[in-house]
Amino acid sequence: MSAVNAIAIRGTLLDCPAVLAGAPASARVVDDGLVVIADGLITYAGAYDVRRHAHARCMDLRGKLILPGLVDVHTHFAQTEMIAAYGEQLLDWLEKYTFPTESEFADFDHATRVAKLFVSELIRNGTTTAAVYGTVHPASVDAIAHVGIEQGMQLIIGKVMMDRNCPQQLRDTAESAYVESKVLIERWHHVERLGYAITPRFAPTSSEAQLDAAAALWDEFPDVYLQTHVAENEAEVRWVRELFPQARSYLDVYARHNLLRPRTVLGHCIHMDSRDRDALCNADATIAYCPSSNSFLGSGLFDLDAARRTSPASVQRLGIGTDVGAGTSFSVFRTLGEAYKVAQLRGQSCTPAEMLYHATLGGAHSLHLEDKIGSLVAGKYADIVVLDPHATPLSSARAARCDDPLEQWFALCMIGDDRHVSETYIRGQLAHATADVSVS
User: Fold this and answer.
1) pLDDT one-digit tens code per residue, 107-123
2) Counting Cβ atoms within 10 Å, is residue 393 exposed (0-12), middle (13-18) or buried (19+)?
3) Phi, psi of 428 (to 5 degrees)
4) Which residues, in sequence order, are bridge partners of residue 332?
5) In angstroms, rounded to a whole number, what is the distance separating the alpha carbons of residues 308 and 343?
6) Angstrom distance (rounded) from CA 210 to CA 206
């Protein structure tokens, strides 16, 4: 290992050691820890040992928390500039804000400008992996793909499919959505660290023919993802019942069209019954929990206890989505603070260790990437975020009264923001820093 391509980071290591399998989440804390990186991969993560970085430049970050890069499993880059749009619930919000905003993304230059802002916000908030919705325009996917590759990020991207119940300028057809999505899959899937997700926006904006076309496309490319929305809002659920009267439930619409499989990533999943939850788990599909947007749009309170399911074949995959722009923060850890509050309102618990899990290894597991990212383990990509509990006077005062680093992490989920993201590393390269890093 040469000094040219090897670096080491010294500080407090905080990660989760294993994918949940019915047991409560646990965290690994190494108070004086070291992560060694070479050629974009972690080569060592554990207790500090000077011999481990004899041939590496060492950044001394003692007093800070070193975590795996954070994972956002559901967000919309085209909605970046309409974040915090006032005063509507889901369906009216789509009509008033989302559809007019997304109409601008046929323009590649406009899409690229917004994509650059979006990705920079992700990185400033410690997010290194994200599942991202484009718009109906192929140019939107090309734009976010180019920017993601420039930054070396792990992004899952997809062109929205909509052939009804939306403005004419945002409509495709079952055939054009299939053809355009196929071209984008062949152009971007598995290029650098990109993955592709077939992306019908939600059942009300896709005809049955389009849902069938999505399934046919997935049969051709079975290792891509499918991302969409389900059971977010009660009015939306009633509308789906009118549009698909033969389906038992909103989720059953996707099941009937063979879109409920492993690598299905379903946003929200609030208004569901036990049969739906069993079907999700048995299909090895993923829940993308978006507490910030659920509260902002008044959609409902997610039932975390009900989502903690196992089947003989699998454990429920569940990740956290910021869901920008209905979500009001790019920060995964602040979004987890909202998840904690929702659990409190339902008389449930969401422990600091579980919050850490969902932000890191659980998010990776939800996207079938746990072998590549999500924990500080030799051989995984060196996607790393460094959090500074002392970045502001208030957080510093709180950190001084915390019993351990896990409690400091929890406090940052409540009162932290991008100022507390001291550094973000993507494949071992420093992508963001709030100040100079001390090198020894």
Assistant:
1) 999 999 999 999 999 99
2) exposed
3) 80, -5
4) none
5) 13
6) 6
